[in-house]
Amino acid sequence: MAQDICDMCNYYEYDEETESYSCSVNLDEDEMYSFLSGGVRECPYFQSNDEYRIVRKQM
Question: CB of 6 within 8 A of CB of 20?
């Protein structure tokens, strides 16, 4: 499920005011509905926070 990989995404940020994590990508109304209703299998905005990913590709 798309929400399972949020922990590993660059857009999943901690908000000190609310003391919680949230996605910082601004989704429009249709995208938000599709995401929350489970209509999306993979997040189209996922960006891995694995900073060594590029280095491993170069090896």
Answer: no
